[in-house]
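Ticket opened by: R.M.
Priority: normal
Category: complex prediction / small molecule

The reporter submitted a protein together with flavin-adenine dinucleotide and asked that the result be attached to this ticket for the collaborator who will pick it up next week. Submitted input follows.
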Amino acid sequence: MAECVISNADTKQTFLNLVGEENLDKKFAEKIKEFQQSVSGFVVHLGVEMELPKELNCGCIMCFPEYSTAENNFKLASKNEMETNPEKIGFGLSIPTLKDPDLVPAGFHTLDIITMPAPYRYQNQWKGENKEEYNMLKEKMADKLIKAAEKLIPQLSKHIIVKDISTPLTYERYTSATEGGWYDIACTPKQSLLKRTPAKTPVNGLYLTGAKIFGARNVCLDKQWTVHSRYYSERKINKRKIYAKVLINADRARFETLRRY
Ligand SMILES: Cc1cc2nc3c(=O)[nH]c(=O)nc-3n(C[C@H](O)[C@H](O)[C@H](O)COP(=O)(O)OP(=O)(O)OC[C@H]3O[C@@H](n4cnc5c(N)ncnc54)[C@H](O)[C@@H]3O)c2cc1C
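Result attached by the on-call engineer:
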């Protein structure tokens, strides 16, 4: 039997499904169930046949029509609603093929148009029970997002040759993330920093890593924190020293990544 198991699957999946609620302390299981899941998103992936201006080669362009757009999106999501007016939709646009033109034949591009948050329970869970209605809803929302993106790329809709659409249900299906959450449990003040789930769990030999733990959403930090937590629990080493070492290593790793680009 393995001495130690490290889970990168999301918090609720790990404890309620993989370990099983029946094997957990009741109070701890309740705590896990009460965690607020992070938001998901809605993304349109396009293949287009058109030339695009080189000025759009700047990572992810965030296009928010008004200062209040982001806040408004979150307010709507809290009521399981979404902004559907193309004039008001806030979105991110990234075009990987401007960064690396070798990915496609000349004259073609790939684009991702992202809007978030997209509530899991939008229109009765995206009408997901009925495949036809689900597809219609996806297409309708995608058209609005494409229209919104035409502010940056006029006539975009006329040049589409491939279209794929992701909803929170897609993220749930392909990543097993509860409710398709992009960041595991939400980064609310109640669930941030030291209030996040620690790498070492109450289940003997089970450790967590990934967006759910302290150092969340920092790929360098979370994996190192897990490894050091395991090391610490075995050797009884001073926790503060480990924390300092993790931070130094994470900074080095970040520096290496930046240097490569
Ligand atoms: C479309 C999109 C855009 C994003 N953009 C950004 C961004 O711009 N900036 C940013 O900081 N973050 C972004 N994020 C969030 C970021 O990608 C995640 O926070 C990060 O990938 C989480 O890493 P992780 O290691 O915790 O989990 P993941 O990378 O999600 O890994 C978890 C793994 O566990 C597996 N798993 C789940 N359940 C089970 C199970 N029951 N059994 C076995 N395996 C299981 C999953 O398949 C997956 O491989 C984005 C996320 C998405 C989806």
